[in-house]
Amino acid sequence: MNRALTTAVIGIGAAQAIKLPLTYMFSKKWDWSQLVQTGGMPSSHSSGVTALATYIGMKRGFSAVDFAVSSVFGAVVMYDAMGIRRSAGEIAVKVNDLDEQVERIAQQHPGIYHARRRKALKERLGHLPREVAVGALLGFAIGACSYLLERK
User: What is the pLDDT of residues 55-94, one digit of tens each?
Assistant: First the structure.
């Protein structure tokens, strides 16, 4: 068994599982799709990469090359989740709104034809900084627990 890989997967799974009750708290509905959705609180990306880096750092030492590689990998993943993927989600919101606006205009002007897209663009792609931070804290706890449990 690859303990580092298992630790990272547990970090991802735990964050995804936490999304289910958090969504219920706010919407009062069980949304089982939260188990596989991107975006939201906490970031499973952050949790997984931080769990991996924490476990490797505690196992091999924080000056080890594999800790450095996992940390840089984690930083890129978290930056991407907050930056590029989040921006793509914001653009999707605007495009979906634009489609609705054009449809309204087409209904008001009989000569204009508009075929609405069958499926709206996915809007929840990235993370807010607080979602990434909570995911990283969760990942740190999981990585540390994995290392400490291994030592027993």
Answer: 999 999 999 999 999 999 999 988 888 777 666 667 767 7
For residue range 101-141, what is the model confidence (pLDDT) as tens digits? 777 776 666 666 655 666 665 556 667 788 899 999 999 99
Query: Taking a C-beta distance cutoff of 8 angstroms, is the pair 8, 51 a contact?
Result: yes
Q: What is the pTM of this model?
A: 0.75
Tokens of 108: 């008001």
Query: Cα(7)–Cα(148) distance, rounded to whole angstroms?
Result: 12
Q: Which amino acid would we find at residue 146?
A: S
104: alpha, beta or left? (left if phi > 0; alpha if psi -120 to 50): alpha
Contact 122, 37 (CB under 8 A): no
67 neighbors 53 (Cβ within 8 angstroms): yes
